Please model this.
Amino acid sequence: MDAPNNENVTVEALQQQVSELENEVEALKSQPLADYKYFQFKGSSSEYFRIWIVNIALTILTLGIYSAWAKVRSNRYIYANTYLNGSNFEYNADPIRILIGRIVVVTFYGLFTIFSQYHIMLKVAGGIALVALLAMPWLVRQAVSFKLRNTSYRNVPFRYEGKVSSFYKFFLLHLFLNIFTFMLIFPYSYVKFKELIVDNAHYGDGDFNFVGRARRVYAIYLKVFLWSLLFVFTVAFVFGILGSIVNAVFGESLSDFFLTIKESVDPDILRILVALGAFVLYIPFVFWNKGFSDGYFSNFVRDNTTLNNAPLKGEMKPFALGMIAATNALAILFSLGLLYPWAQIRYLKYKLEHTAFACKDYEQFESHGYVTGSTVGEEMVDFFDIDIGM
Amino acid sequence: MLVDALLYDGITSKEHEVTLDFTFGRRVIIASHNIDVALEDIVIESRLGNTPRVIEFPNGVRCKSEQNDTIDQILLDFNLNKSKTHKIESSLVLTIGSVLLTIGFVWFMLTGGANYSANFLANILPQTSLDKMSELTMEQLEKGFLKKSKLSERQERIIQAHFDKLTQGDSRYKLHFRSSPDMGANAFALPSGDIVLTDQLVALSRDDEFRDILGVLAHEKGHVVKKHSLRMAIKTGIASAIVGYITGDISVLATTIPTVLINSSYSRDFEREADAHALKEMKKMGVSTIYMAHLFEALAKKYEGAEESNSTIGALMASHPLTAERIEFFKSHAN
Model:
């Protein structure tokens, strides 16, 4: 510090010093603390559509056997088009193993369906369900492990080291906790489950870490609930207002019009049309809701996850993701499923491109090599569309 | 031939820019990394759209190259097999063909195809497995829903006589008289040939000789002969599998709604088939089907209101053919 009585110090010089320091602060502020890089998705829906439809056709022609190869092919396409810091991901699953897993799951499920069709839940069907239930924690672990070890980035695979016993402990404990608290403790279970998954995940020798607070999850559930409520009321309100305006303006002629419709159109057809109309309103809402909460939860998990202390970040706008999901559902419905690949990519692209990772050194990771293992868990999760949130 | 690529040694996540040299001696050389291997020792993964091509070297080394066309040319030049799948995917005609095949297949399965497959499977399943399943079902039913019958000895004797005549002493078929306030007026058949008849249904009979009940028994026997419950089970599985597979994400809705529709209409077909079987048997035994029609009228009266009106939605969803339709059917065939 310069002494205040120094003659060289002028007000101008001090001001200049101050402004220099201010500039420096500004520069530091504008420079991100960490160098976030966004994930990129470079695939195209037309290319993916071709892969998807050929997959289905070949699956039909081979009576389902090709479905394992189909899964690998479409996953390979999606992973290979996912880029981070200029390098893409790889999907390495072996179709033969997937096929074996699929056969096991489908056989079990087939037996269950046949047995359970007989009037009342049968002992045999019950037995199959019980076996599946008891194996559940193990199968979920298998699925998590499968997804990670078959994903690699820069020729270094991800790994999973969670213990089977931890999964049994988790499911048993949280099953009881949730029964006794009427699910009120579910957000806490959610956080604990994420810890179990993320903390045991590794990229090569790099360690993932998850530190999340259940408080935030409660807040998310509350937000999702309130916004959904608001959404429903808004829709009802808008329709109500519109209806009364239309009624006030065209009241007479409209009721005449409806009377003519009522008289000329088959009442049954009219009823079907009304039912369909309600259905078409209902579907987008269900899917909007799904995307909306997915946005919140994905952000939550990303924001609280690090890899060797390098943070991930989620910047999805839940409302936007909800709209994507809703319009996707309508597109799939009205194209009789043909727009499914387009919708899938649209959703995925949004999520990926709103996820960022700040890593100082992408070359620091050492590989533990590729390993193989059972695929039954993965196929079960796949078959029943169980969301383990990876 | 030279190919630009990125090399990852599989030990660390380091990335190296390299040039692969495919020589005419069928060797692949990466000079910067002292790699010189035979062409047969590397695996060039099948092409997948325009994603970077993965080339696997011995010792876990992988290269990725975006020069897909050059690599395809190399595969051609060195007579290595090129992925057929990519060929299909890049052909417009074959892609359109795939779309048509898929739509056609789904349509076929949703209309008639499930029938063929279900019948095929139902026919190859051994009877012993069906018997075992039925035995277990019967046990469950006895515990939960069925009580001892309160029919008079005369009633039981007459109906049993009808049943014996109907089954012509085939020991496979067994008739069980039970009372079931929960199930109400009902009769059902298990795939083993066990047929359960409730007192509540017998109470609706308007014929002293119980010729209407004979019709019901013949109808239930029809279900057994045609293996309806098994066919139903298989069909449900097939329908939900197709819809679920094709629609993927939307499956929550897709598997439930169409299955309900398909299921109900299938079981309507089954009911019609069983009715036709009953008609045949009754004709053979020389009993008029008018009694059956009367019984249905009594049933309709009893369950008035519960039965859907003659609406289109009702007809689409109903599990049984509309009672009115069945009454008409049995009346029209009553000589």
